[in-house]
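Researcher: Can you fold this with nicotinamide-adenine-dinucleotide in place?
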Amino acid sequence: MKILNYINGSYCEPLSGAWLDNYNPSEGGIYAQIANSNAQDVAKAFEAAKAAFPGWSQTPFEQRSRILLKIADLIEKNLDRLALAESMDNGKPVSLAKKVDIPRASANFRFFGHAITQFASEAHESVGLDTLNFTLRQPIGVVGCISPWNLPLYLFTWKVAPAIAAGNTVVAKPSEITPMTAYLLGEILTEAGLPKGVLNIVQGTGPSAGQAIVEHPGIKAISFTGGTKTGEHLARTAAPLFKKLSLELGGKNPNIIFADCNYEKMLKTTLRSSFANQGQICLCGSRIFVERPLYERFKKDFIAEVEQLNVGHPQQGVDLGAIVSEAHRDKIERYIELAKEEGGTVLTGGNRVMVKGFEKGYYLEPTVIETLDPYCSVNQEEIFGPVVTLMPFESEEEVLRYANSVKYGLSSTLWTSNLDRTLRMSKQLEAGIVWVNTWLNRDLRTPFGGVKASGVGREGGFEALRFFTEAKNVCINYDQ
Ligand code: NAD
């Protein structure tokens, strides 16, 4: 099977004729070939996007909205097929793709299809100067969107939907590790009647196709989600070109549990926030801090629950599927070894799982490591797998120090029934999101993004539409 580029409304092969292998992580074999696109393919996609821009940016917002809503409907209609494709490509349980990834991809188009009809800008009357200022928000032109492998269609659409809703045309690249659902989206775009060239999907690696998007002088803004190291590199490339940049990067999120929390709810949610999607969600709570009086009880109950989790082939009704790639599985295993060298104790997990009939798949047990040092590598570096660390704490000040000690600041979770503490800590936690007595609870109108090494800028709601438009002040002087 060939995963092609989608340029100017049609599928096409890469100009170089070069292909990459696409692996099925749950079975360990190659199952498709991906277009290994380069700067020429990006240039071709850019030309298509540039030609489409005048027409699309002039299209009334009601019409743009209608097309986005149609795309949302068609994603819903193709739920089963897309969920299966996502699961095969990524290793995630098909049930998760069906419940979260694909519905959210549809919701992204639906949300921005509606949001664009409500998007407005400001007017400022300068009384005394006899002037009226208004802010004209215009689409930027051709923009670039680059997304990662962990929530493939979910995050791809989170970027492209607001970009086109706002009237831009796009050159977008999904991860070369999970290209399948973005490839399938092409068919849906055509069926929904999206004009040719509005959304062009270029497949290929980061250093080749991705780099070419970031370097292209005509692509005026880049919305990127991925690792912090890649984000640094992107920022260095894009800054001298004065591109608008939105960076959603890595995380090392604390999950802070106070003894006064709703215990059952916390336990159930913590299981999810630790291991959903094999722990490969940037928002997973990978460092669990538990207040001392609750520590031993939580440790015992949590381990018992984790040991009930079922790891296996993603299509067989499991809790955890496969790790996305062999290289990533090996990286996670190195962290588990490092944790032991640093004095950590593996309380449960730590091993590969041999799934009968799929022994070549990349499976790992959900792993809980008790650590003594909040500053050790496994408590500071992003592992991005089914591995959490566990530590007790004595006081609010102490746990805040631990929570904020990392270079990242994406999200944090707080479990407590104390309102004063909630407000105090929400102000002091260095993170773009504070979830209190919940996790991964998303209202798409809210600002989404990180601080510190977790990124620059905000997505979500009108923030995304602001990012994908240029604000121009028009100042009119009038005679009294
Ligand atoms: P990655 O940085 O390796 O790749 C992300 C994307 O960037 C891919 O499409 C890749 O091909 C592309 N890329 C790589 N090098 C490039 C270059 N030189 N120029 C342009 N593009 C390039 O990240 P990943 O391994 O795919 O994803 C995992 C990371 O993403 C984790 O760190 C995770 O925390 C982060 N993430 C963050 C969020 C968030 O919202 N903050 C969400 C999901 C994932």
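Model: Folded with nicotinamide-adenine-dinucleotide in place. Residues 146-150, 155, 173, 175-176, 205-207, 210-211, 214, 225-227, 230, 233-234, 248-251, 282, 382, 384, 410, 450, 454-455 surround nicotinamide-adenine-dinucleotide (CB under 6 Å).
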